[in-house]
Write a structure and sequence with these properties.
This protein is of the alpha+beta class and about 240 residues long. The protein folds into 2 domains: about 55 residues; about 190 residues, Jelly Rolls (Sandwich). Helices cover about 25% and strands about 40% of the residues. It contains 4 helices and 16 strands. Strands 1, 2, 5, 8, 11, 12, 14, 15 and 16 form a 9-stranded antiparallel sheet that branches. The chain has a 5-stranded antiparallel sheet with strand order 7-6-10-3-13. A hairpin with a 5-residue loop joins strand 14 and strand 15. Helix 1 packs antiparallel against helix 4. The longest helix is centred in the last third of the chain and has 24 residues. The protein is globular. The two termini are about 15 Å apart.
C-alpha cells in the first residue's frame, strides 16, 4: 500500500510540474507593440543609423536581459516578392521621454529575409526567433539602461512597418506599448526625429510602431522544486524497497 502511495505522489508531482511548465512556457514580451494598427510607415533603404523607424526604451532593474524573439507587423504593396531588412539594437542619445532617439553606438544587428503574401497590401506578422537573430540574441541588455531598436536597410519588395496612428500626443504613443519586467518606452522616432508624428494636422497625429521583442519564458523555480521533489520521493521509495529486500 505504501508503495502505491509513493507512486501516486510521484505522479501528482509530475503532473503539477508539467502544468507549471505549460503555464510559464509562453513567450514574454518586454515591449509589445500597439494592440491595433491603422496605418504603416515605409521602411527606408538607407543604411545609416539615422535613417530609421523605431523606438527608444529603458530596461528594468532585474537584468541582464536576453532577446530571443522579435515580431514585426508588416505590409507590402507588392502582390508577391522577397526582400530583406535590418534590425538594430543601438544606444540612445539620452533617456528623457519624448526626446530619446538612436545614438551611433551600435550593440547588435541582424539582416533578415522576408517573403510577402500573395495579395498586395495584406498585413502579415514577421516573427523571428533566436536562430534568425544570431547577433541580437547573443547580446545581453544591461539593467536600468536606455536602448533603441529600429529597422532600416530595406531591399527588394517595398515593405512597410505597421503603426497605430491618430494618437493625440506623444505620451499617448508611449502608452500604446505594453511593457513588462520594469521596461519603459521612452519615445517613438522616424529618421531619428523624436516624438514622431505621422501628420502635423491639425490635429497632429502621433504614432506607435508595431514592433515587439522579448524572451522565451522559462519555468519558475517552483517547477524545478517539484521535479526534484518527485525524484527524491522516487529515490526514497526505491531505497525502502531495497532495504526490505
Amino acid at each position: 500500500m505504501r508503495r502505491v502511495n509513493h507512486f501516486a505522489l510521484i505522479l501528482l508531482l509530475m503532473v503539477f510540474g508539467v502544468s507549471a511548465s505549460a503555464a510559464y512556457g509562453a513567450p514574454v514580451a518586454y515591449v509589445a507593440g500597439p494592440a491595433a494598427t491603422n496605418g504603416s510607415s515605409s521602411i527606408q533603404s538607407g543604411t545609416t543609423y539615422t535613417t530609421n523607424l523605431g523606438y527608444a526604451f529603458k530596461t528594468g532593474g532585474s537584468g541582464p536581459f536576453s532577446i530571443d524573439w522579435v515580431k514585426l507587423e508588416l505590409t507590402s504593396g507588392a502582390t508577391s516578392g522577397t526582400g530583406s531588412i535590418k534590425i538594430s539594437i543601438n544606444g540612445t542619445d539620452n533617456d528623457t521621454p519624448l526626446s530619446a532617439v538612436a545614438s551611433s553606438t551600435a550593440y547588435a544587428a541582424d539582416t533578415v529575409n522576408f517573403t510577402t503574401p500573395g495579395t498586395a497590401n495584406t498585413p502579415f506578422d514577421f516573427i523571428l526567433n533566436a536562430a534568425d537573430l544570431p547577433n541580437i540574441s547573443a547580446y545581453s541588455l544591461l539593467p536600468n539602461t536606455a536602448y533603441s531598436i529600429f529597422v532600416n536597410s530595406a531591399s527588394g519588395s517595398g515593405i512597410a512597418l505597421r503603426r497605430q496612428q491618430g494618437l493625440a500626443s506623444g505620451n499617448d504613443a508611449i502608452a500604446a506599448y505594453t511593457v513588462t519586467n520594469g521596461f519603459t518606452v521612452l519615445d517613438t522616432f522616424r529618421n531619428n526625429v523624436p516624438n514622431y508624428a505621422n501628420s502635423q494636422g491639425p490635429p497632429v497625429s502621433y504614432a506607435a510602431f508595431a514592433m515587439s521583442f522579448g524572451v522565451e519564458a522559462v519555468p519558475e523555480p517552483s517547477t524545478y522544486a517539484m521535479a526534484l521533489a518527485g525524484l527524491a520521493c522516487g529515490g526514497y521509495s526505491m531505497f525502502r524497497r531495497r532495504k526490505r529486500a
